[in-house]
Amino acid sequence: xxxxxxxxxxxxxxxxxxxxxxxxxxxxxxxxxxxxxxxxxxxxxxxxxxxxxxxxxxxxxxxxxxxxxxxxxxxxxxxxxxxxxxxxxxxxxxxxxxxxxxxxxxxxxxxxxxxxxxxxxxxxxxxxxxxxxxxxxxxxxxxxxxxxxxxxxxxxxxxxxxxxxxxxxxxxxxxxxxxxxxxxxxxxxxxxxxxxxxxxxxxxxxxxxxxxxxxxxxxxxxxxxxxxxxxxxxxxxxxxxxxxxxxxxxxxxxxxxxxxxxxxxxxxxxxxxxxxxxxxxxxxxxxxxxxxxxxxxxxxxxxxxxxxxxxxxxxxxxxxxxxxxxxxxxxxxxxxxxxxxxxxxxxxxxxxxxxxxxxxxxxxxxxxxxxxxxxxxxxxxxxxxxxxxxxxxxxxxxxxxxxxxxxxxxxxxxxxxxxxxxxxxxxxxxxxxxxxxxxxxxxxxxxxxxxxxxxxxxxxxxxxxxxxxxxxxxxxxxxxxxxxxxxxxxxx
Amino acid sequence: xxxxxxxxxxxxxxxxxxxxxxxxxxxxxxxxxxxxxxxxxxxxxxxxxxxxxxxxxxxxxxxxxxxxxxxxxxxxxxxxxxxxxxxxxxxxxxxxxxxxxxxxxxxxxxxxxxxxxxxxxxxxxxxxxxxxxxxxxxxxxxxxxxxxxxxxxxxxxxxxxxxxxxxxxxxxxxxxxxxxxxxxxxxxxxxxxxxxxxxxxxxxxxxxxxxxxxxxxxxxxxxxxxxxxxxxxxxxxxxx
Lengths: 492, 240
Prior knowledge:
The complex is a heterodimer.
Chain A: H1 2-14, H2 17-76, H3 99-105, E1 108-111, E2 131-134, H4 139-142, H5 161-177, H6 182-187, H7 189-194, H8 200-230, H9 237-267, H10 271-300, H11 306-322, H12 324-334, H13 349-385, H14 390-402, H15 406-432, H16 455-484
Antiparallel strand pairs in A: 1-2
Helix pairs in contact in A: 1-8, 2-5, 2-8, 3-15, 5-8, 5-9, 5-10, 5-14, 8-9, 9-10, 9-14, 9-16, 10-13, 11-13, 12-13, 14-16
Chain B: E1 2-11, E2 14-24, E3 29-33, H1 40-47, E4 55-60, E5 63-64, H2 69-75, E6 76-79, H3 91-101, H4 108-117, H5 134-148, E7 152-156, H6 164-179, E8 183-187, H7 191-197, E9 200-205, E10 208-214, H8 220-232
Parallel strand pairs in B: 3-8, 3-9, 6-7, 7-8
Antiparallel strand pairs in B: 1-2, 1-4, 4-5, 9-10
C-alpha cells in the first residue's frame, strides 16, 4: 500500500513542470557554486605555493652565496666569518652567513592544508588566509594580511555549495511539499483517497517518503558530482568520512524543512496561505535570524578596531626608537648570555631591529590578545545561539565538516605562533651569538608541518549542531503526526 | 448494510445531526432528501469516518466505523458530487490507482472492462481525465466502486448537474449495483430520480429524519407534496 502511493506520488512529482524548472535552476546554482568554491580553494593553494616558492628561492639564493663563500674560504684559507649587516655586497662574507638577515629577510610560509571537502564550504577561508609568512617580524606583521575585523557573517557567505544547501535546497523542498495535503484537499482527491482503506498518516508518510527519496537522489547526486569535480584527496579515508558527515548533516537539515511543510499543511488552510507562511518562515530562519545573531555577537563583544591595533603598534615603535638605548639595555639585561664579548653597546642594526620588534610585540600583544579573545567570544556566542535557527547550525556544521571552521583555523594559528617562536629562537640566538651560518645549517632550519586535530575533536564540535538539528526535526515532525490522528477530512 | 444508531454530530454550538436512526439493507437504494443543511452530507461523512460523531454509532456491514475505520472503508465506495481525479492521469490510470488503494488488482483488460461497462467510450479510457465532462468523471467514479467490489455505496448528490441522458445512465448503473446486492445510500435533491431509482426515501430536516417512505407505496406527486409539507414544517401528521 505504502509502495503504491509512493510510486504514485513520485510520478505526480515527475509530472510537475515547476519542479523541473526549480531543479534546473538548482543544477545551475550548484555548478556555479562548485566552480566558485573550487576556484577560491585553488587560489589559496596556488597563492600558498607561489609565496613558498618565492621565499624558498630567496633562501636558496643566500645558501648558494654561502656555498660559494665556503668554497672560497676553503681554497684561499682563512676564517669562515659572520657577515655584519653593513658589509658592502661582494666583499667579505655574504648575508647568508648572518642568521639575523636570513631569519628576518626571508619568511617561511606556513600553510593550513585544505581538507578534501574545503571547496564545498569555503566558510571564512576566503578572508582568513590559509598561508602566513613566519619570520623574525612581529606577530602583527605576520598576520597583517588577515582581515581581523571579519564579522562572523553567517548569513551572507560566499557562493559555495554550502550556500546552495542552506539557502536554495529548502526552497526546492518547500516547492515540493508546501501543498502536500492542501492540494489534494483543494483538488478533491483527498476525500477520494481517504474513502479507501488508508489512514491519513500513512498517506502523509508515503508523500513524505516519495519526496524524501527525490531529495536523497538530488543530494547524493549533486553531492557526489560536487565532490568528484571540486573535492580533493579523494583517495583519503578522511575525505569520505567528511563526505558521509556532509550527507548526514544535509539530510538532517532538509528533514527539518520537510517536517515544517507537514506541520503547516496539517494546521494550515489553502495552498496559497501555506506557501506564504512557509516562505515567511524560510526568510526568518535563513536570512533574518542569522543576521540578528551575527549582530548580537558583534554588539555584545565588539572587537577593538584594526586601526587601534595599528596605532598601538606605531606608538610602540616610536617609543622604542626614542629610547632604543634603554630598550637595548633592557634586552641585554634579559638575555645576558647574548651580550657580545667586548662590545657591550653593540650598535648593530639587526640587534636594534630585534630589540624594537620585541618591544613592539610586548606593547601590542595585550591588545592583540584582547582582539582574539573578543573574536573567540563572538564565535562562542554564535555557537551558543545556533539553536535558534537550523541555518546557523547547518553553517557551523558544514564549516566544521569542510575544515573551514573558526576553530580549526585557531588550531592552525596556535601552531603558527609556536612555530614563530621556534623560528625566532633559532635565528636570533644564532645571530646574537654572531654564529656564521654554514651551508649545511640551511638544512637544519625549523620546518613547519601542520598537525591535524584529532577527528574526535571535530566530531565533538560537530555533535551539538547535528544533535540540535535532529531534535528540532523530531519536535517539528512529531507534533503534526500526533495531530493527524484527529485530522478531520471534512471540516464543516 | 449501513446502519446509523442515534447518530449525533455537533459543530461548535450547531447541531448538524440530532440523533439519526437509519438502516440501508443490501439491495436497497436509500435516497436521502432534504434542504441544504438538513444533515445529508454530514451523515455520509460520518459513515466515511471523515468526521467523528459526537455520539451514536455508524456501522458498515456490522462493523463500527469509529472502531475500525480502515476495515469499513474496504467495504465502502464513495461517489461525491464531483468525482475528483488526477487530471494528469488517464481514466485507466486513475481507476488502477484507486482500485489498488482498495486492495484490488486487475489486468488492463479488466480495467477497461469496468470503464466501458460504466459507459465510458473506448477512446476515453486512455485519455487524461483533465478534459473529462462531469458525466464522464461520474462514470469513472462508478467504475472505481465496481472495481472495489463495494458492499455499500455512499453517494452525495452524484447526479446534480448531469444532463438527463447522463443522469439516466448513472441511475441504470446504480440499479445494476443494487441488483448485485449493494447497500446504496444517496443524498439527492432530485425527487424524480429518487422515485425512479430509489427503493426507499428518507426526508431530513435540520438534522432529523422526518419521514421514511417506500417508493413503491407513493406516486411522484405524493413525494413532492410530502416533501414540501416537511419543508414548510406542517407534515407531522404524515409521520409514520
